[in-house]
């Protein structure tokens, strides 16, 4: 009898060791980042070619010139009207004639600072987002065409556009209830006028015009459980903007297209942990990982099955949309110069304060 018990205990011990070893192969995502050094494990792989790229919408990207700081330094709330003050300046030639008029103002709907320059009867409008003490130029978003659906395209952003946790607070959640989904689609607290929109905005209203949004096709997303870890995928959803599930990755990317993605300077400033030399960062999937973790793609372009903590603020976002072909613009240029990557300081995009800076 004692011998039989010893055999059973030995078998259980071996099983425990095997289970432990097996789990060790599927690690949870790590967000450790050293800004001053490159990561030797990150190797550049083939990325999208120009013929696979289209432009649609716009979002903060590169660092704006320092002169922009002076342009907007006096944009503040008027104490009498409660409205944002607009500032107009004139540019004159040597004879004193006005050659251009520049208007600096603030857009309450998007949180963007706006520069309007009128010269020779033509007005050029440029948008900027402020993050920390810097301004970032709002530029066209470049998208990779992953699938041709006949009258529309399946697109994923070429770069990691922003930093956003899967959930604003650490807890168990699924995609259908996540704040990442609400932020991308402008729903619930992230709808215009919602509690979180006031300080955090949302993606869809900042990236697209009403005409753009009308061209985006709603998608029925299946959110399956993770059978390995026993975590729930939640209810199926209908989304205008989403992120991929791990089960969709292979069919869309195949074997010829890398899943590596560079981080924009704006996204790095917002908190994405970008590899210093290549600017590659990790990005969210909507599939559950271990417990309160969600799967993602790491800086090397590989699936992290264990996933990242749902409240991780260093994982980036590559939005996925289906858009009418007639709404996109084909491009023949390469990715704009990204500029320097700085140590991220996660915080909401800043609004003007009552007192001007400087």
Overview of the structural elements:
This protein is α+β, with helices and mostly antiparallel strands. It has 2 domains: 42-55 and 143-330, no CATH class; 67-131, no CATH class. The protein has 8 helices and 16 strands. The chain has helices at residues 2-24, 67-72, 179-185, 197-200, 203-207, 210-215, 246-253, 265-270; strands spanning 53-63, 87-92, 98-107, 112-119, 122-131, 134-148, 152-157, 162-163, 219-221, 237-239, 283-288, 293-297, 303-309, 316-317, 320-324, 329-330. The strands form 4 sheets. Strands 1, 2, 3, 4, 5, 6, 7, 15 and 16 form a 9-stranded antiparallel beta sheet that branches. The radius of gyration is 24 Å and the shape is globular.
Give a concise summary.
The protein has 358 residues and is an alpha+beta fold. Helices cover 18% and strands 28% of the residues.
């Amino acid at each position: 009898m004692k011998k039989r018990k010893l055999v059973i205990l030995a078998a259980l011990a071996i099983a425990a060791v095997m289970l432990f070893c097996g789990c060790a192969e599927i690690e949870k995502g790590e967000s450790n980042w050293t800004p001053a050094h490159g990561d030797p494990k990150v190797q550049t792989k083939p990325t999208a070619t120009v013929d696979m790229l289209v432009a649609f919408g716009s979002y903060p990207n590169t660092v704006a010139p320092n002169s922009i700081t002076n342009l907007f330094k006096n944009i503040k709330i008027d104490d009498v009207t409660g409205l944002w003050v607009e500032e107009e300046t004139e540019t004159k030639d040597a004879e004193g004639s006005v050659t251009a008029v520049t208007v600096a103002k603030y857009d309450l709907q998007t949180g963007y600072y706006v520069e309007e320059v009128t010269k020779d009867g033509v007005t050029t409008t440029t948008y900027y987002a402020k993050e920390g003490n810097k301004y970032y130029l709002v530029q066209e978003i470049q998208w990779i065409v992953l699938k041709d659906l006949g009258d529309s395209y399946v697109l994923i952003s070429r770069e990691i556009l922003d930093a956003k946790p899967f959930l604003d607070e650490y807890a168990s959640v699924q995609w259908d209830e996540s704040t990442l989904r609400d932020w991308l689609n402008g729903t619930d607290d992230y709808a215009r006028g919602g509690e979180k929109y006031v300080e955090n905005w949302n993606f869809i209203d900042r990236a697209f015009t009403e005409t753009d949004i009308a061209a985006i096709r709603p998608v029925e997303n299946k959110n399956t459980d993770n059978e390995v870890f026993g975590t729930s995928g939640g209810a199926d959803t209908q989304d205008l903007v989403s992120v991929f599930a791990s089960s969709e990755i292979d069919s869309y990317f195949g074997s010829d297209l890398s899943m590596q993605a560079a981080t924009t300077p704006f996204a790095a400033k917002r908190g994405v942990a970008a590899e210093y030399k290549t600017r590659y960062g990790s990005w969210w999937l909507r599939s559950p990982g271990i417990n309160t973790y969600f799967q993602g793609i790491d800086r090397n372009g590989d699936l992290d099955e264990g996933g990242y903590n749902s409240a991780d603020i260093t994982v980036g976002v590559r939005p996925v949309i289906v858009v009418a072909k007639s709404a996109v613009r084909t491009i023949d240029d390469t990715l704009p110069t990204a500029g320097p990557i700085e140590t991220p300081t996660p915080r909401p995009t800043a609004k003007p304060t009552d007192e001007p800076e400087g």
